[in-house]
Design a protein that fits this description.
single chain, mainly alpha
Protein backbone atom coordinates (compact mmCIF):
# COMPACT_ATOMS: atom_id res chain seq x y z
CA UNK A 1 0.00 0.00 0.00
CA UNK A 2 1.31 3.40 -0.95
CA UNK A 3 1.15 6.37 1.38
CA UNK A 4 -1.59 8.87 0.51
CA UNK A 5 -1.14 12.60 0.72
CA UNK A 6 -4.13 14.31 2.33
CA UNK A 7 -5.02 17.96 2.81
CA UNK A 8 -6.27 18.29 6.39
CA UNK A 9 -7.77 21.49 7.76
CA UNK A 10 -9.39 22.60 4.53
CA UNK A 11 -12.93 23.00 5.82
CA UNK A 12 -15.42 24.78 3.57
CA UNK A 13 -15.80 27.68 5.94
CA UNK A 14 -12.05 28.07 6.24
CA UNK A 15 -10.35 28.42 9.57
CA UNK A 16 -10.03 25.69 12.12
CA UNK A 17 -12.95 23.36 11.36
CA UNK A 18 -12.32 20.02 13.05
CA UNK A 19 -11.75 17.02 10.82
CA UNK A 20 -10.77 13.40 11.24
CA UNK A 21 -8.82 10.74 9.41
CA UNK A 22 -9.87 7.14 10.00
CA UNK A 23 -7.50 4.16 9.72
CA UNK A 24 -10.05 1.97 7.91
CA UNK A 25 -7.69 -1.00 7.52
CA UNK A 26 -6.67 -1.12 11.20
CA UNK A 27 -9.33 -3.10 13.10
CA UNK A 28 -7.91 -2.30 16.55
CA UNK A 29 -7.86 1.43 15.85
CA UNK A 30 -11.37 1.37 14.36
CA UNK A 31 -12.66 -0.55 17.40
CA UNK A 32 -11.18 2.09 19.70
CA UNK A 33 -12.72 4.91 17.65
CA UNK A 34 -16.12 3.16 17.49
CA UNK A 35 -16.07 2.61 21.25
CA UNK A 36 -15.30 6.25 21.89
CA UNK A 37 -18.07 7.38 19.55
CA UNK A 38 -20.61 4.97 21.03
CA UNK A 39 -19.90 6.15 24.57
CA UNK A 40 -20.39 9.78 23.51
CA UNK A 41 -23.60 9.06 21.62
CA UNK A 42 -25.38 7.64 24.63
CA UNK A 43 -27.55 4.58 24.34
CA UNK A 44 -25.94 1.68 22.64
CA UNK A 45 -27.86 -1.17 21.25
CA UNK A 46 -27.89 -4.90 21.16
CA UNK A 47 -29.01 -7.04 18.30
CA UNK A 48 -30.39 -10.47 19.01
CA UNK A 49 -30.91 -12.96 16.22
CA UNK A 50 -32.71 -16.01 17.51
CA UNK A 51 -32.46 -19.18 15.45
CA UNK A 52 -34.73 -21.86 16.79
CA UNK A 53 -37.89 -22.01 18.84
CA UNK A 54 -38.79 -20.05 21.97
CA UNK A 55 -41.58 -21.39 24.14
CA UNK A 56 -44.65 -19.17 24.19
CA UNK A 57 -44.46 -18.54 27.96
CA UNK A 58 -40.80 -17.47 27.69
CA UNK A 59 -41.57 -15.27 24.69
CA UNK A 60 -44.42 -13.56 26.56
CA UNK A 61 -42.11 -12.79 29.51
CA UNK A 62 -39.39 -11.42 27.25
CA UNK A 63 -41.83 -9.26 25.27
CA UNK A 64 -43.40 -7.90 28.48
CA UNK A 65 -39.98 -6.86 29.79
CA UNK A 66 -38.99 -5.41 26.42
CA UNK A 67 -42.24 -3.44 26.11
CA UNK A 68 -41.77 -1.96 29.59
CA UNK A 69 -38.22 -0.86 28.76
CA UNK A 70 -39.34 0.74 25.47
CA UNK A 71 -42.29 2.53 27.12
CA UNK A 72 -39.95 3.99 29.76
CA UNK A 73 -37.56 5.15 27.01
CA UNK A 74 -34.78 3.00 28.46
CA UNK A 75 -34.12 1.27 25.16
CA UNK A 76 -34.90 2.09 21.53
CA UNK A 77 -36.77 -0.47 19.47
CA UNK A 78 -36.07 -1.12 15.80
CA UNK A 79 -37.38 -3.88 13.61
CA UNK A 80 -35.78 -5.37 10.54
CA UNK A 81 -36.99 -7.64 7.80
CA UNK A 82 -33.44 -8.30 6.60
CA UNK A 83 -33.46 -12.04 7.22
CA UNK A 84 -36.94 -12.98 6.10
CA UNK A 85 -39.39 -12.48 3.26
CA UNK A 86 -42.58 -10.69 4.29
CA UNK A 87 -45.66 -11.24 2.17
CA UNK A 88 -49.07 -9.63 2.43
Amino acid sequence: MRPTLAMVGDSRGGGSGREGILPLDDPAAMDAIAGALASRMGRGGNTYNIDGVISSDTLQKVMKQMSAEVEQNNVPLAASHARRVVRK
